[in-house]
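Supplementary Methods S3. Complex input for the iron/sulfur cluster-bound model.
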Amino acid sequence: MTQRYHIWTEGCQMNVADSAKLAAGLDRFGWLTADAPETADLVVLNTCVVRERSEQRAVSHLGRMKALKRKGAAFRLVVMGCMIGPKDDELRRRFPYVDHFARPQAFEGIFAALGLADDSGGEFWPTTFSQPTGPTAYVPVIHGCDKFCTYCIVPYRRGRERSRPIEEVVQDVAHLVHAGVREVTLLGQTVEAYGNDLPEAPDLADLMTALHDLPNLERIRFLTSYPKDMTPRIVEAVRDLPKVCEYFNIPVQAGSDAVLARMRRGYTVAQYREKVDLIRALMPEAAITTDVIVGFCGETDAEFGETYRLLEALRFDKVHVAAYSPRPGTIAHRRLADDVPPEVKRERLQAVEALEAGISAALNARLQGAEQEVLVEGRRDGRWFGRTRSNKLVHFAGEAAVGEVVAVRIERASAWSLQGTTAADAVPLLV
Ligand code: SF4
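Predicted complex, serialized as structure tokens:
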């Protein structure tokens, strides 16, 4: 009888890619997807614990699965991802109804637990992907992280940095392009560290150059940047390789050197600004987004003020802001006091959100009347949607098809998205 699986995914793009890879493996064994846990033979929760709220969502999902099992649901339950550390005894005690715990990317263990054998001689996991569901795909190129920022759990859960050889990534992407993908996002927790651990130490620029030759691949992106690893050579490759989009996500986390030192981010505000200045000097139209944590241990009003002023000065296209929450097992949790009151964290978070809403709206407003190249990703409520090279979401009318790159005339803009009509169908502008 056909078996069905249901995967719930929380967290970053790396988790999304891991879930896709697990689905690929199950598809290979003839399994089908189930829309809901109730109709599944296997339920997988791919968890994230980077923030307290993400962990709470995983725990409440586990509670729902427990209730379903109590009512007689017969699915096997697997929990994978960053919730699982090197030891799972505590988790087994807390969640005895879970059938198997798997650390991030420990796919083989899941298959062994399900009694499914990998007979590919090791070829199976690195190179096999599911049929992509749209024209864009995430491709992990470096796993793990060596940086050990004091607030972050990732290095303890995903291990040290390990890059995939260039040939292997090219093979993956060629497969994806053959299946209809037009844009790939190369993923790494610190993606510019790509290649440091490989023989001959190629870098991200070499990888992007190798991918650039693939016919029918329209766009290449990469995530997430770690400021210290971002070299002029990589920034120049973005400028010089036409398929690489002028879009950077470079988490700054704080605009105060003292806070950055407590976070052990490994750079100063001045060094961070140098990276942004270099990008803007080489590509004035590049979009740059960032991540910020407010209310980190010991953050004073003055230190937060420095962060606020940095955001005002650098005018990012988008800021992902989070209030600090201590993560058990991290250096900050062991050694620093979480001493910023919750209401102060909330005020700072709201201040950043309000500042950024104004900046994003103003930056997007500048695109009104301009034509933007959009890769069409789908159709919703009678309108097409897709993203610009600068990764801005566009909803638009006109003739288009999924997977096409079309020129769109931008007619309206908000902080969160752009609206328009394909240039071919737009009413000509009065001159
Ligand atoms: S660079 Fe820092 S914040 Fe990013 S994954 Fe590594 S330890 Fe975590």
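Residues 145, 147-149, 152, 154-155, 189-190, 226 surround iron/sulfur cluster (CB under 6 Å). The CA atoms of residues 112 and 298 lie 46 Å apart.
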